[in-house]
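Can you give me the bound-state structure? Components:
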Amino acid sequence: MIFLNFLISGISLGSIYAIIALGYTMVYGIAKMLNFAHGDVIMVGAYVCFYAVSRYGLNPFAGVALAMLVCTVLGMVVERLAYKPLRQAPSLAVLITAIGMSYFLQNTALLLWSSNPKVFPSIIGRGAFKLFDGRLSVSHVTVLTIASCVVIMAVLSLFIGKTRLGKAMRACSEDKGAAQLMGINVNATISLTFAIGSGLAAIAGALLCSAYPTLMPTTGALPGIKAFTAAVFGGIGSIPGAFLGGIMLGVIEIFAKAYISSQLSDAVVFAVLIIVLLVKPAGLLGRMTQEKV
Amino acid sequence: MSKKIFVCAVMVLAMAASAFGASFKIGATGPLTGGAAIYGMAAMRGAQIAVDEINAMGGIQFELRYEDDTHDAEKAVNAYNALKDWGMQVSMGSVTSKPCEATAAENFADRIFALTPSASSAAVTEGKDNVFQMCFVDPNQGTASAQYIGEKGLAKKVAVIWKNDDVYSKGVYDTFAENAGKFGLEIVSTTTFADGNDTDFSVQLTDAQNKGAELVFLPMYYQPASLILAQAQAMGYAPKWFGIDGMDGILTMEGFDKSLAEGVMLLTPFNADAKDDRTVKFVAEYQKRHGEVPNQFAADGYDCVYAYCQALTQAKADPSEDAESLCPKMIEQFTTMVFNGLTGENVRWSANGEVTKDPKGMVIRNGAYVGLD
Amino acid sequence: MTMRRLINLKRVEARRIYLTYAVVIVAYAVCQVMSSTKFLSSSMRGMLVPICAYMVMAVSLNLVVGVLGELSLGHAGFMSVGAFSGVAAAIIMQKTITYAPLRLAVAMIIAAIFAAIAGFLIGIPVLRLKGDYLAIVTLAFGEIIKSVLNNFYLGMDSGGLHFSMLTDTTRLLKGGRLIIRGPMGISGIQKIATFPAGFILLMISLMIVFNLVNSRSGRAFMAIRDDRIAAESIGLDITKYKMMAFVMSAALAGAAGALFAMNYSTIVANKFDFNTSILILVFVVLGGQGNMLGSIIAAAALTILPEKLRQFSEYRMLLYAVILIVTMLATNNAEIKEFLGRLNPFRRKEEAE
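Here's the bound-state model for the whole set.
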C-alpha cells in the first residue's frame, strides 16, 4: 500500500512535470529552440491567476482563462521582440536570448509582485479521492492535472495532425526553407506555436501552484529545468514523449527518495536519465533522424 | 502616491543628513533579487525604518546602504567592496549565512566592524574578533530546540526533515541530532530535500508517520514548511510540529490558510503580534510603507541599527572617524553592553560574537502567536 | 607553442593569436599599475581574480562549444570538482608547503587533474550522444556533481584522510579538521589566489588552447564540427578527438575553479549550479564561438556589468537582462554586423588576403 501511495505521489509530481514539458516540447518540435523562458511564463501565468482569484474574486476557471490570455499575448510579444529577429542566427544565440528573457521575467515579477511568497488558492480545492478505506488517496488536483495533460495531448495531436495550420507547423519543423517555398508563412506559424505554448504555460502554472501552492518569482525556474529534462527524457519534440517523460521523471524522483536516499534523489534522477539516453539516444519516444550524407 | 511622497521625504532627509557630513555610514549586503530576496528585502526595510526613526530624533545620524548579493558569496564580496568604496564605517555584514562567511572574512581582514542581522552559521563569527551576530547561532538553536522538546515532554519519538543544500538547516540539524539523546528524544526518521525537489514531501511525511513520530522538527524557512503542513494535512497526518526562527513569517504569507499552522510551535526571537509599544509601532510603520507584516529578518535589521546607535553613542564615537578606529571601540562596546530590542531583552554578546538572548517559545493558536510556557 | 609552427600558420591566424596575447598582457599590466597606485577602486580590485577565473572558464568552454561544436550545459561541474579538490589539497598541504604561491600552483594542478579525470569519465557516455541530447546529459552530470558534493564529507587528522558520503562518519581524532562538510562546503579557506596567478593561468590556458587548435588535432576538431560525416569518412577517430578536447577543457575549468575558490573564504557546491554553467556559456556565445579573445572580453564585461549597474539598485538585474537581450539581438543583426565589420580595419585586411 505504501508502494502504491508513493506511486501516486510520483504520478502527481510527474503530471506537473508533464504538463510543463508539453509546452517545451511543442516549441522545440516546431521552432527547434530551447525556450528557457518557458518556466517563467508559467510563473507569470500563476501570478495572473492568483491575483484574479485571490484579489479580484474571479471564478478560478475564469482566472485560468484570463491567465491563458495574458500568457498567450506575452508569449507572442516575447517571440516578436526577442526571438523573431534571430530567426537566421545560430541556435545558441537564441538560447542565450531565451535565458536573458528568463532573467527579465523573473526580475520584472520581483519588482511587480515582491519576493514574498504567496499561497496559491487551489483552483479545485484541496480534496482527495479516497480508495481502499482511505488508505490510498489521490488528490483532485492530480486527477485534474492528468486529465488536462491527456486532453491537451489529444487536442494538440489532432491539431497538428489534422488541421491546415498543424500541417504548416509540421512542414516548418521538417524544413523551413521548403515550407516557405510551398507558400507557408513560416514566421506566422512559429508565432502561432509560441502563442499555443505560452497558453499551455498558463494552465501549467495554475496546476503547478494548485498542487504545490507557494508562488514566488522563481517558482517557474527549477520546475522548468526539470520539465525540460522530462521532455528530453521522453524524446524532445514528441508530444506523447513529453507526457511519458514527465510521469516517469516524477515517479523516479519519488522512488529514489523513498527507496534509495532522499539526499541523493536528484543524483539518481539524473543518472537514470543518462542511462536511458545511452540506451535510447533520442529519448523514450523520440525519432532518430537519419543523417544524410 | 503617498508612498512616493514619503520616499522623496526620506531621500531629502538622507541628503540633508549627508550634506552635513555628520552621519555614520552603515553598509550591508543581502539578497535583494533572486530566490532569497525576501530575507534581504526584509532586513533592509527593517533597518531603514530604524535609521529614519533615529535620524528624526536629531541626535546621532545614520546613512544606510544595502547592496544586492543575490545570496552568493562571490557577489557578496563584490557588494562589500562597493560599500568600501562608498566609505562604509561600520558594517551589517550579510543577511544570509554563506555570503556572510565570505564578507566576514573581509571584515576581519579590513578591520571593519560587522554586526549581521541574521547570518546564523557558526563559521560567520569563528576566529573573527570583530564580527557579531544579532540572531542566534545555528548550533544553539538546535540544542535549544532539543532541550525545549525534551524538558517540556512534548514528544519522545521525533522526525526531522531538513534541507540538504542549506547551511542554516544543516547547522541546526547537526546539533539537534547530537543533543537529542541527552534530552530523552529518539530521532526515528531523518529525511531531506533540496532546491529542485522541494515541492513534494510525501516520502518524508510517510516515513515520519510510519516510524511513529509524535513530533516533526522542521529546521528550515517557512516557505517549504508551509508546503509540508499542507501536504501533511492532505494525507491526514497530524503530529506536533516544531520549527525554529526561520518558521517566523509563515502567518504573513498572502493567502496562507492559517488553520494549517494551528498548534505549530517555534522558537523565535520576534513576534509581530506582541503588544509592547515598540513592536506595535514598528509593525505599523512597516505595514504602512510596504503593505506587509514584518518578519524576524526585518526585526533583526531594525535591532542592528539600534544596537549600533547605542554602541556608537556610548563610545562617544564621531562620524569623522574611519572604520579602523571605530572597530576596537565597537568591539569593546558590544562585548560589554546590554541591549534591549524587538528581538530580545537584556541582549548580550560574548567575545566570540555570539548573542545571548532568550529564545521565545511560541505556539500558533487561532492564527496568532501565543507564548509557550 | 613552438616558433616554427607559428610561422607556418596562416598570417591572419597568427596575427589573431598575437593580438589575443597582446591584449591580455597589456590589460594585465594596466590593471597591475592601477592597482598598485591605488587608482583602482576596491570594487574593481576585488573582481580581478574572479574575472581571470571566468576568462579561463570561457576559454575552456569555447574549446568544446566553439571549436568542437558541441553544446555543454554542465561546465560549472568541472569548476566545482576543481574548486573542491584544489581547496582540499591546499588545506592538506598547508603545513608541508608553506610558500603560498607554490601551494596555489600545486593545488591548481591537482584540481586540473581531478577535473580531467571527471571529464574523462563523463566523456565516455556523453560523447556518444550529439546535439541537444549531449547538452542535457552534460546538464545532468553538472547536477549530479552538485548533489554528490552536497553529501560528501572529507576530514583529515593525524591518522590521514577520511571521507564519507551522506552523513559525517569520519570520526576524526582530536585536532583533526573536517575539510569538506557536505552542504556547508568548505569554510575558513586561506585566500591565496592572486591576480598574477590568475594572469599566468590565463596565459597558460591560451597557449594550450591555441596550440591544440592549430595542431593536427585542432584541424580534426574543426573538420568534425563542420561536417562530422565527412570527417568520419576520411578516417578521423572522432571519439578520440572529441575526448581530447573535452578532457582538456575540463582540466582548465578545474584549475580555474581552484583559483576562484581560493579567492574566497568559503565555497559551497550550490555555487556551481546550472546558472553558473549558463553564465559561462553566455560569455562564449557573446564573445563569438571559436573566438578566444571574444570570450575573454565577454567574460570581463559581463562580470563587471552587474557591479556597474549597482546605482540602479532594484532595477539592476532587470537592466542586466535587457542589456543581455539587446546585445544578442544587436550582434546578430546583419546590418549592425556589417557596420561593425566596416569599422574594424583588422577584418578588412583579413578579407583582402
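A couple of observations. Confidence is low (pLDDT under 50) at residues 348-353 of chain C. The first strand of chain C starts at residue 152 and ends at 157.
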